[in-house]
Structure formats: structure tokens, C-alpha cells
Queue: 2 jobs
Job 1
Amino acid sequence: MSTEKTFKLDGRDIPFDDGDTVMDAALRAGEYIPHLCHDPDFPPHGSCRVCVVGVNGRHTASCTLQASEGMDVDNSSEDILEERRMLLQMLFVEGNHTCPACEKSGDCKLQAVAYHAGMLSPHFTHFFPKRSIDASHPEMMFYYNRCILCGLCVRVSKYEDKKSVFAISGRGIDSRLVFNSPSGKLGDTDFSPTDQAASVCPVGAILPKYLGYETPIGQRLYDFKPISVVGDETARDIAKDKLTNGGPDE
Amino acid sequence: MQDLDSFLHGLLAESGDTPDRLLQHLIAVQKQYSHIPYDAIQVLSERLGIPPVQIYSVIEYYAFLHRNPRGKYDIRFSDNITDRMLGNRLLMQGMCKKLAVEPGIPRDDGKVTIEMTSCTGLCDQGPALLVNGIAVSKLTEMRIHKMVGLIEAGVPVGKWPGKFFIVEDNIQRRDMLLNKRLIKGSALESLLVKGADAILNDLDESGLRGRGGAGFKAGTKWRLCRDAAADEHYVVCNADEGEPGTFKDRVLLNSYADSVFEGMTLCGGIVGARKGFLYLRGEYLYLLKTLENTLQERRDANLLGNNILGQEGFDFDIEIHLGAGAYVCGEESALIESLEGKRGIPRKRPPFPVTSGYMQKPTVVNNVETLLAAARIAVYGGDWFRSAGTPESTGTKLFSISGDCERPGVYEYPFGVTIRQVLEDCGALDTQAVQLSGAAGFTIPPQEFYRQIAFEDVPSGGSLMVFNRQRDLLKMVLNFTRFFCHESCGFCTPCRIGGRLMNDLVEKVMVGYATSYDIHELKKIGRVLQKSAHCGLGTTAPNAVLDTLQKFPGTYSRRLVNKSYEPAFNLDKALEVSRQLTGRDDEEAHLRLGN
């Protein structure tokens, strides 16, 4: 008999090690829990709440929830699925997400998670905020319209790249990404396409310049397989690939 | 004015250049220069070793810090619903008009800024405002008129009439805590005589539960912190009394500060902490000086510092940190982040502060009132304390009472008191509803006034706002939804966006455009906040909406459009920009829908 510790996820036994979160153990066991602000390669954050699961009648973010023996985790009840859809709809109406006109369409986690969650429309009243674009960087673009404030670029730039190019400033609905330069422009920071932070954006907020529709819509990452199958590693490889193989023509 | 370089140099030399000093330094710079100049950010970045971008993000998190200059007279009207009921809007409009200034925008000559701010904790003597951070109470048209004169004449705030700044305690009912004075140092003597275990047993016996609202057993918290192995432990007094309608901690800090510090020192002695912090909300800046003096008196009396009361190794001192206008910092882990100089974003829990708090060290965070009670329990015993109250909710509780009643102020009652009793005592007549525990609390209708205020019935952190039958409760709800939009830290999706969606829907009800579908939506979004928000403030933010929907459905239903669906988009309103551009506002420039 195996002595490994397990918890139940929708009835299936999931083995885990001490210190694992429910998300860690589930992903390793091949069970997908939708997530946006989380990337398994980096410490969890718990801000988007899309990975919400039910445990003992309480809903909590699985990316920050420590796994424990005998836990009974609900990852698929209608209650949980509806809550996730609503959280996703909130993210869609907060910014301006015009998928058909976005270079990230088909490679975008927000879009892919929304498909996975069965979200058919943004449902809520759009905020239609007036947001700009920062095109000051020679190689990279920043689209405020698409930022979902997941904080991945902030964390990765600070802890992996040791640069602190980004921070989330303001508060509440006025929260926004800011850049570490006197002018506040991305172009005046030391941000580089080779930074790890350049390839972690789950949406189309941070994108390389001079690249458009190299891969036609319909042949992109999540066009072939749903996000529950693709996995985070492949998604980041695609983004990195774009950054290394793209760039201005000589 | 002192030049920036030498000012910063002095500041850094005097109070340190570690990263945790950031917020306190920013508050000092803001006070001196009415904003945080770009050059100050550069200097602080270099000296504290913090990237400028993180400094921007801290400045823009706190409502009282600014990157652009404010007026020389920086005025903030308190905008709790109780201030509104006392007419703050008209007073502010009048002041703006007389001073020819737009809300939120400094006047061209840089003399004055006027805007609204969240509840400043003067609900029993409002309407209130802050001028350069200092509270002015009992505003009237006459008082505003005089202030306008003083501002135009350039009289420094320090030379304004003293009576503007009188803040009364208004203690209307005293019971065991407020009646029993504590002899300075007696709780610490008790600790030295009886020992830490005996005091912890007293606390357990007393049944004292946290007075901030969550109600965690104080004895258990202290024991958990003491037993958490670490080289340092900390004690934090949460005086970030930001819940709208709450002001009892202000009174305790004004008249019972010594007892609060005694409670902190007692806790320090028990858990093995050498350092304590009082986190004082920025709105209570005017208390700072007397609090500092009280600390100095205690140092002089050997009740703080090294070898307290001659006990070898009993070292403990207290430092006061200021907040800067952020409700979320009342949440204990956000408060700790703020103490460390950062944005007040609540941490992931577990770990809890008792094992990993300030600087990741075991930390007790207690409410002002809890610490005051603990000091008395150390002297008078656990039995004394539990002789009042109910078995589950022992002792007495302080209530901040405001709104439609004849005698607003602070009332101390044994737990278990009925709401009806409280209303009779404060002279509330013809009451429509009571809002208990602030904007995040419960709305109580008359048929529930028989209920007891206690953890086992209706729990309360101590705020009680009274609304009579002439009041429109939807105005209260809208005041609270706006408050939560303004105060959400923005970290998690449901609170950041859901809070705004709820506010917009309540506005839609208010202007008469909502349908029963919108009511259904409000309930759905409210449930998402309750279930999935990151912290306790997010999960309680929809309470007022959900409670009034359930208990006062008429407040909403009488305003609904009798249709199943009505778009949020208002075509006529959308034409407003065009009307402004063309300077037209005549009949033809409006769409009259349905006419």
C-alpha cells in the first residue's frame, strides 16, 4: 500500500508532498484548475481568484491553498463554475478586450480560460475605460487596455530578472501598471525582450513590436487544444519563441 | 522653506534609512512640501534601496500622499453617511464657491485644495473636515465662512481659533472599563508578581475576545505568539479605526492612552517582544503629540525602555506609525505591510501574524480596546471581567453611536445589551434602521431591535449608526458602495471590479433606471464577493447591499422601472459631451425617451 498523502479533487485521489498547494498537486497530477495570475514556475499570488475551488463549503483560491490530507476539493460544481465565469466576465468588462483585433488572440490565456469556463459573453456593463498604449520602447509595446493586473510581470521582473521594471500603482478600480523610469515610459526603463518578464504576460498587454499575425488566426496555440491540455510551459515557450525569432527586419 | 536635500538628510539621519521607513518618510515629506517632489523620490530610492517605481506605487496607494502639489491649505471633508445627514455636501459646495475652487483641483494660486475623504471618525460631532491633516469638528455655515476668511488672509492653521479643533470625548455611558481607572504600571507590576502564565490564565478565564470585530480569544493569540519560536516578537496596536461610524478608539487614545500602552507593554512582557507599534490612522494626526508625550512619561517612569520596573531583561518600547488614508490597512496583515512601509495589500493567510507578522516574525495585533481591557484584567482578574456580559461574549464593549439620536457619543455596555436598550438610551426616536458594525456590517430593521449585541447574536466592532424614518436608506447604501470603491485595495478581481459593478447598479436604482433584473444581478455579484474575495474586507463589502435588499426590499422596489430589462446605457446622457462642446442645453439637444 502506498503511504503517500492524498486529497480528493472532484472525487479523484491527488497525491501531494508537504508544502504543496492544491494547485501544485492538481497540475502535477494532470488535473487542470483554471488560473491567470498564477504560473507554476513562480510563487503563487492569489489575486485573480479564477482558480477558486470549494473546500468544506468555503470558496478559496487553490493556488495559495496548502494541500492537506483528506481534503475534499470541488473543482467542477456549477456553483464554482459560475463563480469563475463571473470573475472572468468582470475582467473582460474592466478593460477593453477586443479579441478579433488583438495580436494575442488564440494565444491569450484570458480568452482561452474564458472558452474553457464556457463564458459566452462579458455579460456585465462594460466600463470602457480610456486607456492608452505605451510604444516608447524600441522593441516592446504595452497595451493598457488589455492588462488584467495579474502582477506576473511585476513579480518576475523583481524576483527573476532582478530589475523591478514594473509595479502596480494606484488602488481599487484605478489600479494600473507603472514603469520604473523618471518619465514613467517603458522605453526609459532597462526592460529587454530577453527578460523573463517579457514572456509571462497571460494576455496581450506586453507584446513585441514589428510582429503581426505571423501565425494566422485559427492556427494558434489554443486553436488546436484547450488550455486545460496545453499547459503553462508550452504557452511560455510560444511567447519566448516569438521574442527570440521576431524583431525588426535587418 | 527648508531646501529638500537638507530636509531629507535630516529626516534620514533622525529616523533611519531602512526600507520599512518609506511610508513614514513620505508622510513627513508630504507634510512639509504638500506633495512628494520627484527629487525626493530619487533620494529616498537611493538611500532606502527601493526602486523608484515601488515608491510611486506606495504614494499612489495612500489617499493622503500626492505626487503633485496640493493647496497650501489642504482640506478634506469627511464623507461618511452621518456627515451627509448633517449637511456636509452643501457646506463643501459653499466653501468651494466662496474660495473659487473646484473639488480635488488646487486653486491656480496654489492656496487651497478641497475634496471629500472617507469617514474621519467624528460622526458624533460632524460634519467634520481635516485641514492640513488636523480635524475640525461641528462645521456650520458660520464656521466655514470664518475659515474662508482665514484662508484668504493667509493665516497659518496653527493660529486659527482653538475652538475649531476641539474634539470632545462625548462619553455618554461608562461601565466597568471606563469606570475603573488603572494606576500607571499596575498591570506590569501584576505581571512581575504573578508571572506570565498566571496572566495568560487570567486572560483565558476572562474570555476576552478581540474588540476589532473578528472576536479571536486574546489569551489564545498571545499564547500562540509567545510559543512561536523566533529571535524577535512584536506587539502591534491597531489604531487604524477606519470603519465608517467608528470612533471609540479615538476617545480611548485621547483619554485612556496610558492604559493602552500598558496593555501593549504587558503583552510585550508576556510574548517576549522588545518592540511595539501603535498604528495610528492618519485622520487622528492631531492625537500624535499627546500620545508621544504619554510615551515619554512612561519612559521617564521606567514603564518603557530597558529593565522595566527594575526587572532585568524586561525591555520594551513603543513607536507610533502613521497611516495615510487607507481603510484596508485596518486589516491586520495589510496593516503589517503598511508598517513595513509598503502598500497595504492584505497578505495570504495562513501564515497568520502570530507566527509570521511584522518582518515575518511572530506578532500580536490587537485592537486598542482589547489592549486596554487586557491591562485591566491583569490587575482585576478574569472573574472580574467575566462578571459582565454573556457566557460567549464576556465583559463590556464600547460603542460609537451616531446618526439620528439626541445623544450621540461613546457608550460602554455589557455584551448582551439589546439594540432597543441602546436606542432608548441615546434618544433615538422613530428609528427606521440601525447600521451595526459600519459599512461592512449589518442593517437591522425594527423587528430585530430585540436582538442582543454579542458574538453569539449580532456581533459588532462597535459602530452603530441610527437612521430615522425620514431617511432614504438607499442613500446610505450608495454612500457605502462608493466608500468600498474608493477604499478597495484593488488586489483581487471580485472586490476591485465587483465592488464597482455593485456601486453602478445601486446608482442605477437610485436614478430610477433599474429593473428587477438588476436586483437579481446585485445579489449574484454580492455573493461572488462574499465567497471569493481575498480578504475579510472584500468579503464583507457587499453586506450593506445584500442586507438592505433582504430586509428593506421596498427601498429598492419602489424605484424600479416596471420592465424586465433596461439598458445601463443612457442615450441622452451619452449626448452630454456633444452638448458641452456645442454649448447647448435646450430642449432640442435632449432625447426624451418614452415621451
Note: Chain B has 26 helices and 14 strands.
Job 2
Amino acid sequence: MLKRHYSLAMSVALLLLLFSMLLSLTLGSASLTLADIVSVLFGRPSVSPLAETIVWQIRLPRLVCAVLVGAGLAVSGAVLQNASRNPLADPYLFGLMAGAGLGATLVSVVLPPQLISLALGAFAGALFAVALVFAVCAGQHWRKVEITLLAGVAVSFMLSAISSFILYFAEPFAANRVIFWLMGSLNRTDWYSVMLLAPVVVLVLLLALALRRQLDALLLSDESARTLGVNTGRLRLILLLATALLTACIVSQCGGIAFVGLMIPHIVRHFFGVTSARLLLGCAVVGALFMIWVDNLARTVLPQQEIPLGVITSLVGSVFFLLIMRRQRL
Amino acid sequence: MLELSAVCLRFGAKQVLHNISFSLQKGEFIGIIGPNGAGKSSLLRLIQGALSAQSGQILLKQRQLSSFATAELARTLAVVSQTAAPLFALTVEQVASMGLLPHKSWFELNSSYDSAQVRLALQKVGLAGKYSDVVDTLSGGEIQRLYIARALVQQPSLLLLDEPTNHLDVQYQHQILQLVKALGIPLLACLHDLNLAAMYCDKLLLLNQGEQVAFGSPAEVLQPQLMQQVFGLPCEIALHPRLHKLQVTFMPASLEPVC
């Protein structure tokens, strides 16, 4: 991938992102024009207080969350695919989703109502899943990636089985609440979610960018990376922990949004290049762009009703992914 | 440059290397030879710092090898080994640029000097004009030369080569060894082909079942009795009349001489 191709791809993606963010703020049940949005954002007095509230308290935090969630999931996926040398790795690698599901199930069904919030329960459950995988893999110093991947799959099945067992005996309303929550949505996000997600997404992106040369070296082989002075075991541990924490934060705020972390890095490699710096920055922008439009679709396709994000990402993502795979090698 | 004294390596109860002692001076090319399982690659991995010796001493530039930090060691010695194909479609220039890694801090960007260094290394190995080619499209010889270029970008004081001519046809085997010898960097290489070793190496280290059988010039090491003892086949060793290099010919009992 030549430098000018990367510059062009990045410029186009950034312009599209800016345009999409502005357009996204106009979409919703209350009719607001692009001029209204610009007026609200720049604090012009001509705008009604209601429009200000809609933009600042409802649409903008949701939009910023979509940007952070899309960027975070795509960057996590890219880091994990390179760090594990596995193109099929995704942010839910360590049973995070199953752990979050179990946490949400326990909070909704087993524990007394209002004791712990669903988000906190999911966050704790996701971290518990990661801790289980890490406990299994710590003994072999993170050298055998396959063991980490298999441990993630095993933990995922184990925690899902426990959740299913609890939900099977739960009253239908509570079970539905957990199941719908697991499908993913941004409708519960607010400025608190932004404050939680923004620092974590930025820090993980900066960390991954700082370790971009080490991530590139891993693309050849562990042995090759070690001869370049990379401590492969320590590098993996740092990156796996950072991405697990980021994904747990995302899951706690908006449930499960599948396919973004797996698909976006492959699309970005195609248009931006395969080296980690380009990949990570490209993932941040394209992931954000993708999530904005998925959320726009989720809010507007059906009248007075939202479609879960996970349904759209899985459907759109898999079709797009298969089309690209059919046309050329990723 | 490199000095090993009475180095021993064990994997559990298994003795992999026993009492290895030799030294490599500036400008020398030492070939490590021996049959499969002799401990050649283990010795190379020991010197890379990937394995730790149970006893003995390894000095690199008059310093204990264990005192080198990982990045410092990567700035001092580079390794060319048989590397798997990259996971994604990396270009020649991107792979060669990886040699800059040990010299760079976390957020440091590549300078124009770095890019010039990478291009110079690629020119030295004859890959000028292939900067943007994807590694998958290169021939076996070109890939090996690319990894030598990456090692050159590391600016090492010592170059280790693990079977650099494996899977290459005759033309590339000579091309690679001529190339590394012309670099002027001290070289330590595991070699399977005894004739190539005799032709290009200044000294040979002969290993068998982890033991150091002989160390010296090709003429000192390539002795018919030693070769038969180590490789289990009778052999003839002759001086090539025009090249003045030793040539080893093994003669299995099943092949009767014609006259």
C-alpha cells in the first residue's frame, strides 16, 4: 500500500466521518435541520431550548458513544488479530461477551432488584471471564497463543451455559431484558458513558500506536520478533489486558455488538495498508464511521422502534465481509 | 567479538550441548556443521539469548551475554532464520524497516535517514526496485535476501544465520553466501552443506550429539576419519584443482566405485 493511497483513504474516511456525524445529529423523531444542529453546536441564540436539550443531552452523547464504541471495538480487533497472529480473533476472544451475559443475568434474575446496575454486573462478568482465561494461560507465559484462544472458547461456552441455565428458570420478563440487552444498543448511553469510554479508548489506541513496531514484528513470527528485541510474552500480556479492559467497558455500556472488531480491521487493511500504525488509525476512523451508520439504521428503519445494533452489525457485516472475500483476498 | 567457554545446555535431563568453547574474531565467518540433532540450532539460539546455558560463559564484545537487555542485544546481533510467510500482505520495504525496531523509542517516527538506510540495505542485497512488492510474490532466494536486508538495517556487530541456504537452488545458495561474506560483518552460520561450508567459511565448528568434535580451519576440521565418525559414512576429501577449496564426497557402501 503506497503512502499516497493511505493519505487518500484517510482523508476520505475523515471527511465521511465528519459529514456522518453532522447528518446523524439531524436524524430522530424531532425534526432538526443541519442549520439547527450547527446553531446548537456553536451556541447561537436563535435555537429553541428544546432543540438544545435534544442535541446536547440525547443525540450528541449517543453519537460520541457510537464513535467511541466503533473505534474501540475495531482497534481492539486489530490489536488482537496481530497479537495473536490469528485473522479470526475479535474483541470477544476471551469469553468477554459470555461473561458480560452471565453478569447481566445474575444482576437481573438472581440478585435483589436495584442492588447492582446491569452495566456494572456486565462489566464485572466480563472481567471475571478474562480473569479465568488469564489464570489458565499465565502458567505458559503467553507464548502459546493457541492455548489462549482455546481457553477463551472454553470459558465462553462454560459461562454461556451457566447463563442459559439461569435464564431457563427465570421469569420471562427478566430473561427478555437480559437477552435484548445482550443484542446491543446505544439507547442507554449518556455523557457518563462518554466519560467512561473516552479515556479508555484513547489510552488503548495510544498504547497500541506506541507498540506498533512490535505488533508489526509479530506478523512474521514470534521467533523473528524476539530477534528484533521484542519480549513477545510481555507484549501479548499487556495488549490482551488493555483490549480486554476496553471491551469490558464497551460491553457494560451497550451490550454485545458483534462482527465490528472482526470485520473492520480486514476492511481497513484492504484500503489503508497492513502495518499497525495505518491499521490502528484506519480502524479508529472506519470503526467509528461504521458504528454511526449502524446506529442511524437501528434508529430509523422501523417507526417508533429500535433494532438491536448486534443484529445489524452481524447482518450487514457478514454480507459485506463475504462479498469482499469473494472478490479478492483480504 | 564472541567467545564461548565450556558452555553446557540441558533441556531437563537431556544434555543438548556439552563443553562448547570457541571464539569468533572480527571479520571471520564461522560455520557450524554436524548431523541432525547435533545441537547446531540450539547453539545459535543460545547465542541469540533465546536459551540460557546451565554452565559456562558466553562473552559478546567482552561482556557477559546475560548482561545485555533485549533491545540492546538486538542492536548488537541480528539473526537470519527460516521465517514463515507474513500473516498479511507486507511489502519488501515494510519487512526491511522492521530492522529499525531496536533503535526506536515508543512514539519515534522513521526519519528520512532511516528510509535511506532501509533502501541502502535493500540495494546491497539486490532488491532495489522491489520496495513495494508484496513478500508473497518473491522467490525463495529473494525472501532470504530480504531477511538479510532486515538484519543489515539492525546495524549489528555480529550476524547469525540459521541454515541460510536451505530450500534454495544452487545459484541462490552461492548468491546468499557470497552476499553475507561481502558484508564485512562477523558471521556465525549453521550449514548443512559441507562443501558450501568449506568454500565460504574461515573456520568450522563440528558438533555431534551436543559435543564439540573439532574447531579450526576447514582443512583442520574436514578430515575423512572425523567425517566418517560423525556422519557414519565413509568419505573422500579432495582439494578442488581450480578453486583450491576442499570438497567432501560421501560414499555409501551401496554405491560401488566404478574403478
Note: Chain A has 14 helices and no strands.
